[in-house]
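Shipment paperwork, digital attachment
Item: protein structure file
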Amino acid sequence: MSIKKIMLVLFSLFLLFSVAVPGAKAAGEPLKLRLSVEDQVSAIEAIPVKDVYYVPLRPLTEALNGTMTGLPDGISVNAGGGSFKLMKEGGVLYADGTTAAAETFNQNGMLMVPLRLFAKLGYSISYSPSDYLLRIRSASATLDDLGFISRYAADLKPPAPASPAPSAGTAGKTVYLTFDDGPSASTGQLLDLLDKYGVKATFFMLGPNMNRYPAAVKRIARDGHGLGLHGTTHRKEKFYASPAAALGEMVQADKTLEKLTGTGTSLIRPPYGSKPYFTKAYRDKVLAQGFHLWDWNVDSDDWMYKEDRSAVYGNVMSQVHKLKKAGTNPVILMHDQKADLTVLPHLLESLKQEGYTFGVITDGMPPVNFWKDKR
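Attachment content:
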């Protein structure tokens, strides 16, 4: 076995058995890497914390064609023929009954977990810092690590760090509440709640749902809420089939909005957020038409927890408090669904009591997105 292969094996074992402690950084500037998945270099960013790499749980699970399910006692992840559960009280429980320590944290609205958790699901993890390689692969991958490095050397090298996106509104004290996937049968009740608390929000809507609930769309506009687009299909294989397909969905949704309200919008949010699928090729195609890309920095995970009000509330408030320390305005991701009607009053009351005001996302604001793309 060559020295290069031996080093790759040793680094893989190091990642597998390391214990992570969020908040503690290794000496010097941490080196963020693009995670390679199977035989491709993905857009998923891996972040080192005390020599252990953390990755966003949802994008990696999707990249591995896995699934996530919110449960009363945690989050179940299934991928690669295995599964584990991130326990609400801390730690991870594997399908074979074994447990392990697993610290997690939220960054930019994404739940970050140690990459090593996936090793017990049958995946191999390789790490070669001199080659900027951090890779997760199954037995179906066709390239070995040396072949992968040879093919993707230019893509593996990290880009120069981007400057943080500026915030609009009063620094750290303006909340931008956003709702995806609507309108729905419960949008009227949602608007009633927002009106009761004197709160404005921004709605990223799907074309077919706008046609299904035209009165709700007209009321959203009439009540002074922000108008945004979420495409038409909300199906990954269709929206992300090509940059032209993504643009076509946004243009069609905008036409529907203009037909119903008399006005269009430049604000867009791609299905599942912009990372990792809404790459530069997609952004160049879509944003060149005058659209502005918006993601979030607080993920409520309401799609997963549904009626678990305490989980949604705690998730949102903990992330908001972290952003407050940094003086960053929260852009909160929620969904236009009936389950949110029960948690929303508690959230709005708490945020108001803490001195937050609520703003509407507008065309002239610097976009907040995972790519830090200011267009």
